[in-house]
Amino acid sequence: MTYEIALNKAWDEIVALSPSQKHTVKFLTDIYEVQVIDRIVLMRPSDSPASEEISVLILRYLIGILKHGYNQKGEWISFKELKGGPSYYPAYQKNTIKPILKSLGEDPDSLIKNLTGRFGGKLVEGGDISVELVTFPDVHVKFIFWFADKELPPEVTILFDRELAEIFTTEEVATLMFFLAIAFLGNSVEGVLKFNLTSTIDIGL
Question: How far apart are alpha carbons 79 and 35 in whole angstroms?
Fold first, then answer.
């Protein structure tokens, strides 16, 4: 499914579900305004239109909240535990896990600094170091890192609450994790997407 088709479908669902004409959604450190009548997602305060890719993700989050709410189950799971997760894992590993591992091996200090400083993640127990990050409101993602040593390469495990599968499909979870990787590896999500680098992504909404 292309982003254009996914975007139109999401807007149709929002129009049918939403009791309000405007919604404000925070994603990482950015604020977005969803304007239902005009069918547009704007970044605040610049009023710049969000990319189709980010717009779809924000709308799918909003649809999930409107339909189900988001009540954490307190059960951390990995991507492979999602429905169809093992099938999507090779693309997920290529697009998200490998870039993180590359950064962890080359410059772990900057990686952790981005997560805890720029994005407000908090240090928690696990691995050599672990960071818990708020992505969308109440949607926490945990990154567990093991640093490289003389015998073993670096490793990372990404966990999230099982409730996330109630508002996002497996493909959407993969896309969320990809965007997180872009962001905390020091890139601009909107900037990368603007240059059509998502054509290399092996997942779709």
Answer: 32
Domain residue ranges of the chain, discontinuous segments joined by +:
3-68, 76-200
Residue 199 is encoded by which pair of tokens?
């054509």
User: Is the preceding peptide bond at 45 cis, omega within 30 degrees of 0?
Assistant: yes
The predicted-structure confidence for 148-202, as pLDDT tens digits, reads as follows: 888 899 999 999 999 999 999 999 999 999 999 988 887 544 444 443 333 333 4
Whether this prediction's pTM lies above 0.90 is answered by no
Measured distance CA(163)–CA(165) in Å, rounded: 5
What contacts 24+ positions apart, CB below 8 Å, involve 51-55? 51/189, 51/190, 51/193, 51/194, 52/3, 52/4, 52/7, 53/3, 53/175, 53/179, 53/193, 53/198, 53/205, 54/27, 54/179, 54/189, 54/190, 54/193, 55/7, 55/10
Task: Give per-residue pLDDT as tens, 44-88.
Answer: 999 999 988 899 999 999 999 999 889 899 999 999 999 999 999
Which DSSP category does 196 fall into? T
Cα distance between residue 181 and residue 115, in whole Å: 10
Q: Which residues, 6+ apart, have CB-to-CB distance to 40 below 8 Å?
A: 49
CA–CA gap between residue 136 and residue 151 (Å, rounded): 37
Structure tokens at 93: 């590993």
Q: Per residue, what are the HEC states of 66-95? A: HHHCCCCCCCEECHHHCCCHHHHHHHHHHH
